């Protein structure tokens, strides 16, 4: 018997929206011109890219010229950290220190490790039991040689939203560049990069109903980075490679939809989240909710069952047609306890029983009821 799929892993990836796909299709068929070509077919592609750039900029409230397309959120993170770091080196600024947090995505943590091997110094800030960075610790970590603070907008596992405006004020006070990995936040919460004082921001298409393989980075026009992908002069010489027009168009459309529907989308996901938490608290003992209850991504639920094996639980959910995650997609299949749960101090008897449910636009209350019923049946 075919089991109906109920998808609760929207932080890992989302399903492409019909409107997004429809907008992309011509650029996979008749509109195949290279955007650098001067004839009309090429100019059409160039025009489509610039339209999409405007839509991304509209969502983030910046100038279109401050948006650069990349292949994914990971590339945007690498570009921000390495692009800035290599620029410091090339310009001989004498600055070599970066501050980040212990709960960042591997795209940031691994970029930092790579930079450490090249002589850069990194401070990894602790977070509290809800996953918040401490602002005093951040300020105390600043040195003469600090050129960058990179703190994620919202955590991909536990959903905690960091105090971005306050962090940016500290960065400004010390003339340090502030980058944020907003891959989970864009399209889920309102972001005005200018008001928030963000200098660089990473985002990804597949978390907001565009396809996998497209990302973008906002770089304030006053900031200089050294490009680390050498080749042609695309993206104002910041990122070589023939543009992926169809996906860029898809990302633009996804951003346009996100901007238009942000309030209702947030409300819908927050209601599903709170209903799920209520049901969990009502029906299960020995369960712990991770992350902040108040400053949390609308669709994120992260809970731990005491003395339960997360992988076994996910397997049984899968048998019942439920797609969910333990921790993040990048760490699933890996039996070690997530670095985020370790950083917020969850004990191993709970941390091994982690379940991450992330709601999206295609979910409804009926899905939550089915999920709770299934959890009761198999637990
Ligand atoms: N940063 C965060 C916070 C993420 O959640 C992810 C993906 O899960 C990434 C970066 C990487 O994005 P991508 O999958 O587009 O490379």
Q: What value does the average pLDDT take?
A: 96
The portion of residues forming beta strands comes to 5-15%
Proportion of residues in helical segments: 25-40%
- Class computed from helices, strands and strand pairing: alpha/beta
Number of strands: 12
In sequence order, what are the helices and strands, one letter per element?
EHHEHEHEHEHEHEEHEEHEHHEH
Gyration radius from CA atoms, angstroms = 21 Å
- Arrangement of strands in the largest sheet: 2-8-7-6-5-3-4
CATH class descriptor name of the largest domain: Alpha Beta
Main sheet characteristics: 7 strands, mixed
In the predicted model, the low-confidence regions spanning at least 5 consecutive residues are none
- How many angstroms separate the termini? 23 Å
What is the approximate shape?
globular
The CATH superfamily label of the largest domain reads Type I PLP-dependent aspartate aminotransferase-like (Major domain)
CATH architecture classification of the largest domain:
3-Layer(aba) Sandwich
Count of DSSP-assigned helices: 12
Total tally of structural domains: 2
Heteromolecules bound? pyridoxal-5'-phosphate
């Amino acid at each position: 018997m075919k089991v109906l799929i109920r998808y609760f892993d929207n932080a890992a990836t989302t399903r492409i929206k019909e409107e997004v796909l429809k907008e992309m299709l011509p650029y996979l068929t008749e509109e195949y011109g290279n955007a650098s070509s001067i004839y009309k077919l090429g100019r059409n592609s160039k025009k489509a890219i610039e339209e999409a750039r405007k839509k991304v900029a509209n969502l983030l409230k910046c100038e279109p010229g401050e948006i650069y397309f990349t292949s994914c959120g990971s590339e945007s993170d690498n570009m921000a950290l390495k692009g800035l770091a290599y620029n410091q080196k090339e310009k001989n600024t004498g600055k070599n220190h970066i501050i980040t947090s212990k709960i960042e995505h591997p795209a940031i943590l691994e970029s930092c490790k790579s930079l450490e091997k090249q002589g850069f110094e990194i401070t990894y800030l602790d977070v509290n039991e809800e996953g918040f960075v401490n602002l005093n610790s951040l300020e105390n970590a600043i040195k003469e040689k600090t050129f960058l603070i990179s703190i994620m907008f919202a955590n991909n596992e536990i959903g905690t939203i960091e105090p971005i405006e306050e962090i940016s004020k500290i960065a400004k006070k010390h003339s340090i560049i502030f980058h944020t990995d907003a891959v989970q936040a864009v399209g889920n919460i309102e972001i005005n990069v200018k008001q928030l004082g963000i200098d660089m921001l990473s985002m990804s298409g597949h978390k907001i109903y565009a396809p996998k393989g497209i990302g973008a980075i906002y770089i304030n026009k006053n900031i200089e980075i050294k490009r680390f992908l050498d080749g042609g002069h695309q993206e104002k010489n910041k990122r070589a490679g023939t543009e992926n027009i169809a996906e860029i168009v898809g990302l633009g459309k996804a951003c346009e939809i996100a901007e238009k529907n942000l309030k209702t989308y947030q409300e819908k996901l927050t209601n599903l989240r709170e209903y799920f938490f209520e049901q969990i608290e009502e029906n299960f003992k020995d369960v712990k909710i991770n992350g902040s209850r108040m400053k949390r991504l609308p669709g994120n639920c992260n809970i731990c069952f005491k003395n339960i094996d997360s992988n076994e639980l996910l397997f049984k959910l899968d048998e019942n047609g439920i797609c969910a995650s333990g921790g993040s997609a990048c760490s699933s299949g890996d039996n070690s306890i997530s670095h985020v749960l370790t950083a917020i101090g969850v004990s191993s008897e709970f941390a091994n029983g982690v379940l991450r449910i992330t709601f999206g636009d295609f979910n409804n209350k009926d899905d939550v009821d089915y999920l709770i019923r299934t959890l009761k049946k198999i637990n």
